[in-house]
Design brief:
Elements lengths: L6 H10 L6 E5 L12 E2 L9 E2 L3 E4 L6 E9 L13 E5 L11 E4 L4 E2 L3 E4 L9 E2 L10 E3 L7 H9 L4 E5 L3 E6 L4 E2 L10 E2 L2 H10 L4 E4 L7 H11 L4 E5 L10 H7 L3 E5 L3 E2 L5 E5 L2 E6 L3 H19 L10 E5 L3 E2 L5 E11 L2 E6 L8 H4 L4 E5 L5 E2 L5 E5 L2
Parallel strand pairs: 5-6, 13-16, 13-17, 14-15, 17-21, 19-24, 22-25
Antiparallel strand pairs: 1-12, 2-11, 3-10, 4-6, 4-7, 5-9, 8-9, 18-20, 20-21, 22-28, 23-27, 24-25, 24-26, 26-28
Helix pairs in contact: 1-6, 3-6
Length: 397
Amino acid sequence: MAELLTIDEALRRIKEHAQLLAVETVAVSDAAGRVLREPALSRVDLPPFASSAMDGFAVRADETPGELSVAFRVAAGSSEAQSLPVGVAAGIATGAAVPEGADAVVPVERTADHGHRVEIPEPAASGQHVRPRGGDVRVGDVVAESGTRLGAAQIGALSAVGVAEVRCSVRPRVAVLATGSELQPAGELLAHGQIYESNRAMIAAALRTVGADVELLPVVDDDEPAHRVALEQGLAADVLVTSGGVSMGPHDLVRRVAAGLGVEEVFWGVAVKPGKPLSFGVRGATMIFGLPGNPVSALVGALVFVRPALLARQGATIVDPQYEYGRVVSTLRRNPQRDEFVRARRVVRDDGVMLDPVSGQDSHMIVRAAAASALIHVPRGDGELTAATPARYLRLE
Ligand code: AMP
Ligand code: MG
């Protein structure tokens, strides 16, 4: 491993090699988690008409306070366009169209409703409880920009402005394979020297949250022909993620076999703990990540490096890991050579987020990591990370 890249430099090179995926039309109702590739525009003014924000009476503000006759009542969805004669109030429901001529709504609890007449004891202000036409958005305005990852609020907004379909990136096809002759599937008995294979399902879970369409490939023994077959199969995907076999041991075959299949290595080795021997390469548009086999290393690699790659390929505006800030409950020693990701419990308190490292920080200790809800980023350097300064962390969910 010649020179270890910083996390930022590794991310820069990954993004530089991320080619945009194709675009497809998706029903808005199925588009949660997808990345928009064209701006989505409003089909209407929203609200499409001046509407009432309350159940009450539509009035002319300058005719209040006073007693008005009630000429008619308007329900939500009532399609008859009405106008309000002088000296008159109209009963109105939330969401109903405010009659032409009315400029205020008085909530029912601020009136005395006598059926054909209504008493309004207090003056109404012009505009009160009226939602103006187009107050949320105007027809033709951008509702969501290209590059937006659609969440619940955006899906609601697009539906509200009458958009039924959007142009999104296709989902990245991701192949995940695990290497290691010691690996057994759950359900089998373990012979001496064997462990259960856990990285494929974990990596798949980490990547599905950013839209990946994941295929799990079979576990590969530590021999070259088996690697060749599996890697070639995986290279048909948009992104191939392997686990294990990227260190310096005699059985670490992934990089060599990948090179033989035409993969150009972009880098090998990042100054991060856990996860140092991560390799990244490309063959055509396909990206290949060789994650180390230790489960916590594979998890960190998937979260910090593979997720951004998938977002970049989908054209997302926000691609990089999104750090938040909290305070460590106990001092953490910094590592002079490598940035570290320390697994911690995140405790939200009135005065901020506290980060409490879990016991057992070795990179094979995935069960200890499972108790954590945050990865504290401890930058490399001398000295300590203390509670005195805010610490960056990534959420683990
Ligand atoms: P490697 O990176 O292949 O040298 O593997 C490092 C460590 O991670 C070894 O202890 C492996 O047994 C373990 N390991 C590798 N792959 C997996 C996997 N898919 N699931 C669980 N543990 C693994
Ligand atoms: Mg191995």
